[in-house]
Please model this.
Amino acid sequence: MVYALFFFFFLTPWTVINALASNDKSPKKLVDPALSISANAAAVDITTGTGALGKALRIRDSSGIRLGGMVITDMNMLLHGGSITPPRHRISGDGLLILSLNIDLSKVMHLPGGSVEADFLQFNGKNVNEYAGCAQGYNSLPGPLPLKNRSQLYELWYRQTLFKEKLIIRMGKTVPTYDFNNVIRPIVTQDNSLAIPAVTGLIYTPVFVNSSMLGVMPGYYNSAYGLTVTALPLSDTYFSYGIYDGNLARGVQTGLKAWPTFNSYRFNILEGGRSWTLGSQNKPGMFAFGGWLQTGILSTGTGITENGAKGLYLFGSQRLWLKNPAIDSSGISMFYQFGVNNSVTLPFKRYLGFGATAFSLIPHRPQDSMGTGMALAWLNSALFTRTTECMLQGYYQAYLTQGTYFVGALSYIPNPGIPAHKKNAVAITARLIALF
Model:
């Protein structure tokens, strides 16, 4: 029965993909790398959607007003391990809606380099990661409770560029993972044939938030009020600093708060990075290093407390092979991540991750990608009985039609971290992403 469901759940969508592809009359050219998406676009895109909603409402580009958004929905099936009872936990789904309003103040108020944005988020789902016993999260959509009817002001910020875009300031309710520890961020070059599109389409949580920072780093969907400052002294070098409402570290769902909380809990983060090209084919790559500081009294809920915490992290990506140099961006790239903290209350002490991605290697499918990844976390012995948790995942991301993608992922967790789930877990996910 399980395998029959597998074929229906995971392979049937390919029939839909092929049907849509055969009916798609748009030119078969490689997607602009700057517009390529990850498997959780809500976690990495600073401007949500394509703006098609505004165009449908006949809002002209010249007006400076942009309306967009996205819908992400998925179904998950546990093939092995995880929750045995109740059986309904073996099949579960999630749904996400984001609506976005962006106003270009240079067009509306003649303020060069200024913009404001407001985003609304609606999430409905189930605790699919707990069902599998996965502490890190093999599915990036569900986060902390509540998971049903989660409606919130996701973003509300003002952004200003200065000195010919050498300095960027953004303040308000933001998603710091856009600017920090973002290994997914595309590497865009002047020559699109050299660029690395959204570095991976993996769907597990650590590729969006390094596991060593889970519990303190604001992001999807727990955004937070704060200030981000980015300096770009050279075209290939950047430095960013951010300070945010740090009450997430004491269990407050900052994403659900319409206003900031001013107290001793603050999250500070500093990052610097550089990009380059290697070899005669100018294969692009990048590396970044950062550190963070969380203030306030932190607790495990079991009597262990500490006054603040801090950590270090690094990440990078590199194009390894170009199939058609100087023609398109098809080929293979890799990425890597590492993080460590000094905390005795956070769930994960250290994290190591890496993966590889193949772009445009399937004949007649130039906008598809596929890849694999591994996420290894060292667990806090005060919270878990196991010492480590490892996840292995593979995916295929298929372009359906303009702004719409299908992602199929297979996840294997040989040593689930949640104590009640001693068996290794195998799960499949089918995800549909629609940008508008």
